[in-house]
Amino acid sequence: MKILGVVGSRRKKGNTSTLMQEALKPFKMNNIETKLVFLDDYNISDCNGCEGCKETYKCVINDDMQKLYPEILESDAIILGSPAYFYNISADMKAFIDRCYCFEIFDKEDRSVWMGLNEALGGKYAAVIAVCEQEREEDMGFTAESMIKSLEALGYRVVSTVKALHLFKAGEALNDEKAMEDAKQAGEKLLKTLQLKERVRMQLSKNNL
Ligand SMILES: Cc1cc2nc3c(=O)[nH]c(=O)nc-3n(C[C@H](O)[C@H](O)[C@H](O)COP(=O)(O)O)c2cc1C
Question: Which of 13, 14, 128, 153 has the largest CB neighbor count within 10 A?
């Protein structure tokens, strides 16, 4: 089992990073492999809409996203985390998500017929962490929903969402008991979902189904 955590903030000791690491803890405690990715460490250009990926499910742009595609495909679950930047995800997170367009598959004759590659592979699970400075949920705008909708389109089922409000200074999430607890619980729920999947699979093979 492998879990991929993707941080869309450039503040490595910031709130998104702090909460992401808390969400990954339940996996580490169960000796499950995790990979923490700070998008700022990767050179990821924007999707240019060339549609060159549609036959092969591979993006033709040769940049650091090519290092992340295998990580995405190998992971059983993904956690996306982004600060609210003007009511939406950060530009780094947007570029990352857009570059996952190669995993969107459309019927050639009827583009209203489509699926995420993960659906063809049998479904995967995800969690989302959204962070903002203001106190009201509406002030984070579409940050969480933007990640949720994109993950769902890619064939992930999002089982937990953390919306951490009123966090501004880098790392002050560490002192926010509720945000830290929410992040831990999000990780735990994702872990339990994956464990349930394993149990069901074992039961199915035991029953020759
Ligand atoms: C460019 C920019 C835009 C922001 N837009 C919002 C916003 O729309 N709503 C909000 O509540 N906070 C906003 N913030 C504040 C950040 O979401 C907040 O400081 C968050 O804790 C940063 O997360 P980080 O520590 O992971 O980088 C913005 C910050 C920046 C730099």
Answer: 128
Arithmetic mean of pLDDT, 36-64: 97
Q: Which residues share a beta bridge with 82?
A: 130
- pLDDT, tens only, 111-128: 999 999 999 988 899 999
Residue 72 contacts residue 78 (beta carbons within 8 Å): yes
Pocket of ligand 1, beta carbon within 6 A: 9, 11, 14-17, 83-87, 131-134, 139-141, 167-168, 170
Strand partners, 81: 7, 129
Q: Which of 85, 90, 139 has most ligand 1 atoms within 8 Å of its beta carbon, as the pocket-test mutant? A: 85
Q: 183, 23 in Cβ contact below 8 A?
A: yes
Distance CA 15, CA 27 (A): 20
- The single-letter DSSP state of residue 108 is S
**pLDDT tens across 61-76, in order?**
999 999 999 999 999 9
Ordered structural domains, the chain, with CATH:
2-206 (3.40.50.360)
Nearest Cα to 186, choosing from 118, 145, 130, 121? Answer: 130
Angle subtended at Cα 137 by Cα 132 and Cα 138, rounded to the nearest 5 degrees? 105
Answer yes or no: are the C-beta atoms of 165 and 182 closer than 8 Å: no
What ligand 1 atom has the least distance to the C-alpha of 10? 27
